[in-house]
Batch of 3 targets.
Target 1
Amino acid sequence: MSTSLLYHGFGLPTGYEYQSSRYENGSIIFVILEKRFALRCSSCDSREIHLRGSHTRIFRALPIGNRPCYFEFAVPRVQCLKCKLVRQVKVRFTKGSEQHTKRFKKLALMLSRHMTIKAVAKYLRVSWDFVKDIQKDYLQRRYKRPNIKKLKRVAIDEVYMGKKAGYLTIVLDLQSGIVVYVGKGKSGESLDPFWERLRRAKVKLEVVATDMGAPFIKSARDNQPDAVNVADHFHVIKLFNEKLTILRRDMQRDAETAMGKKVLKGIRWLLMLKPENLALRKASARQRLDNALELNKPLATAYYMKEELRLIWQQKSKKDASNLLTEWVNKADVSGIRVVKSFARTLARLRVAILAYYDFKGLSSGKIEGSNNKIKTIHKVAYGYRDMEFLKLKILSMHENREDALSG
Ligand SMILES: [Zn+2]
């Protein structure tokens, strides 16, 4: 064992020296000392000092395989001749008062790229929070303040992160696909710090794509009055899907009432019959099937209308899209389905925002959809995160390429 091995292998800086080693409870302890010439006053960096005893401390160092290793170091206490103070010298292989070497923390971070926080913690025999804090530290340095100077087009979204975290408001750079802001809640105020940041950087947005709820639209209009509000395909379909869910629930409830049950009762075998065989049955049997199908008709119509809705964003020209939108709204009006009719009113109100899509080239909602899917994955991993700041950083860093990304 030598000083040079600790230097090359364990990141011990120059000025320290290997003294001895011992083995305790499956751990390896390297006793080290700092050479006299390397000692300085921790306050003014002066070398003019007198030794005034020491205080022994233990630091986690890089493990050897699955064997924990420690540095045992009697940290010298020195009296500075310049500033007269008596204090411990700075421990150069650790940060502040931490009990781990810088190398050890670096290893935890490196492992985080391939293993979950839980796995890293188990391997290094440290707590989950210890690994989390190392990740957080790293993420904070890199992602706390995303560069917004060149921001032109953004999408604003709300995501539900479970009971603990509640709703988060996400702002996405539509050009790069990078999340540039994460706010708490889903109200217009959730965006205030973001608008403030834009103001300070003197950024004027060109496009703000939002969901169809009033709070974000209003907040964007108040704070970036020159930006055009665009209702993109992703958000419109998302809202329509929510309406479909309501419709399906309503219908299920109706079917559970006595009337519905009576209609649905015993028609399963009728549904299985081939049409030619059905023709041979009594008229009353056919009537029963028609009644049952009638019950499901609104759902079938609504599904069909969703497919037609998509086409509004796939037209060659704004004019074609405009015609299609009018046609869709009219169809919805006569559909007789309550939720579809109310959705049509929303669409009519947002007509300008929907058609604005055609005024900006390359405004596909693929990036919004992609980021939404990624956030859902983070949601799954992050469900247990109690640390809100950490959760935000995880979202801000989710565009990170695979090699650099940290596991949850
Ligand atoms: Zn000093």
Target 2
Amino acid sequence: MKKVLLFLIDSMMTDVLLNCIQKGKTPALQFFHRNGQLIPDCVTVFPTMTASIDCSLITGEYPDRHKVPGLVWYDPSEQKIVNYINGAEPVLTIGLAQCARNVVFDMNDRHLSSEVQTVHEELEEKGFTSGSINVIAHRGRKRYNVHPPFLLDAAAGFSLEGTTSGPTIFSMGTLVKPAIFREVPWSMSQSPAGSLGINDVYAIDVLIEVVRSGMQPDFTLIYLPDNDHKVHKSPRLAEDHLAQVDKQLVRFLDTFDTWEQALERNVFILVSDHGQTVVGSTEEHNVNLDQLLEGYATHQLQSTNIQGDELVICNNERMAYLYPLRDDLLFQVIETLSGEGRIDLIAWKEGEWAKVMNRGELLSFRRGGTLRDQYGTAWTVEGEWKVLDLYQDESGVIGFDSYPDALSRLYGALFSQDVPVIIITAAPGYEFLSKHMPTHLGGGSHGSLHKQDSLIPLLIAGTNRPFVQPARLVDIKSYVIQEVTTQAALV
Ligand SMILES: [Zn+2]
């Protein structure tokens, strides 16, 4: 039977991919394109940040069900800001130990809801084998010892030894190595400078070794992060950055007798997690949240005490979660924000209703009702439809334009936690700035609900089974399970 491989290429964008293919810059992606189907406008979840998206990819659910709200969020049960590592400065401020613990242990074992099943759990329950290479969301049915390198322990001040869960073939940089016959030969990609193996070269090294060992699982999810870092720095060179990713795909394809043989043995699915928006180069393109909200006592990143604090700011680049810590503050904060023209959307919840404001106009919506959106989800919608650029087609179905799948995605983020929260997104060309968080003036950024951050390419080769359209990232899990099941039935 054919094996299924799902490559997650961080920040791959459709226009960049098509330009690369047209110019012959990415031979591997061109090969998959020629032998497969490309869906140019698949919609990812919101916030458009890798952490929440990875959890949606492996569970097939929006954040209101899988419960991982974003890359940076506030955990009221611990009275702490959770940060799955965004930039070096917050890591230094919060402490490496806590950040590493958040990403290596907490996300999979504490934050990711036990009410949802991951693709790995579901496949292995059905008797198939599953694999995960370098994906931060990796919950599975087996437990693994984490082996932090001495340097990481030394920097953290104490040992980060522990266990985490994963599928049968599980690799997490050099922290958890896959149980195969032969180890991946050492290279610089495994050094601290190579992010301890969390990079494209090492991920492909592991994949090659897994296939060579004869232990390739029925399904493997492989994360390729390098493109994201590069597009953040130089978005105008995005084609060159994607060409570098392609070199790694070529390296994998070249391990077969022919590229056609790779396709005879595997179904290839390649998808991005989000797009990126170019941020203007002048200071005013940073919307300074500390300044804008200086009238409130804000909870600081390194503090473990919220006594006397009024507001927690959790900055996710072009999106932010703001948590008012007193009931009377919600509308005061909304009022403070509503005068800022560089903010695009301001959203909050009232009971079961989601409320969203765009330049003073208001839209309310809740689950259930007589209206259907283009994905078949039922809604009740009141107020100004133009707030989320919604329209109704001839058959009365709700369609989306500037904000793809806006209702489910915004709802998913607002209801990912059971606490009062305000969501803000930055207008195109802008990004939020707050103490300790990385910014990208003149570079690329993401996080918002806007289509520029939200539409991703989905490329499938090696199978003719069509993908459900209009396509969403949350539908990939069921496609994978169906494909693995179909392949097994063909034998
Ligand atoms: Zn990024």
Target 3
Amino acid sequence: MKIEELFTVEGYGVVVTGGASGLGLAFGEALAENGASVTLLDVDADALETEVARLTAEGYEVRGEVVDVTDHDALDAAFEAAVRTSGRLDVAFANAGIDPGPGFVGAWAGADRPRNEEGAIERYTDERWNRVIDINLNGVFATIRAATRHMRPQRSGRIIVTTSLAAIKSEAVIGAAYMAAKAGCAHLTRNVALELAAYGITVNAIAPGFFVTNIGGGHAKDPAQQAAIAKEIPMHRVGFPDDIKGLALFLASPASAYVTGQQIVIDGGWGLGIAD
Ligand SMILES: NC(=O)c1ccc[n+]([C@@H]2O[C@H](COP(=O)([O-])OP(=O)(O)OC[C@H]3O[C@@H](n4cnc5c(N)ncnc54)[C@H](O)[C@@H]3O)[C@@H](O)[C@H]2O)c1
């Protein structure tokens, strides 16, 4: 295969959950900008309408559907509809996720990291635990299942799960349910990759560090917070959605055909430790 064909996704059918904002939107853009037919699924109808209108006006083949990943029947139906429209399903991004709420420490960075009683494990409510697990773990399972129902018969496909650095290392600022959900997604990725390898389907995960998106009401957009965290990141800056597009294209395209069951960290070196 010629090098220019390695990264081609021209004509691919793509579905992205949580596709109206942040990293999911970047995944959808990266694939649409390279000729794919993209369906963005999201609970946020307004953001979906805005982003689909913008990308369509720019000449890309993008559509949106309001779907909550906790509604597994609606998710299955949305995959059916996307396959009917695009004619095929080549790539599915299991990406939708929510902020976990506070962890047991109340500040990301700096010398003063007070304990946060609201995030203490013994005060963690069932309601909070179940909501994060329902979206960030069960929603990923349901997305993988919906995608596989189309990919296994066609004996090809790419499933890409958004996990987190939180799937690999503990973090005091992040709520416990998020850690469990993301670690669960990482291991689910490996096991489904094992199951589906014989059918030409690869399953991999992208584990982002700190990216400026709308997660948690957009707290990552606060410049003071970005500056504090950037000090702890060896590359001395936080990530932006454009930073993740190349990795998404790699995992979706023929370039990664022999890669499966992997979790690729993209974090400016944050997980390595503090350098300066
Ligand atoms: N931003 C970061 O620093 C970071 C780091 C590691 C992992 N992640 C993960 O990246 C993924 C995307 O998050 P983001 O940072 O782009 O946040 P974001 O809030 O900008 O985007 C998430 C999107 O998911 C949608 N969504 C939320 N609940 C949903 C549901 N039940 N059904 C369908 N859609 C739903 C939201 O409406 C939103 O459009 C998440 O899984 C998140 O855990 C983010």
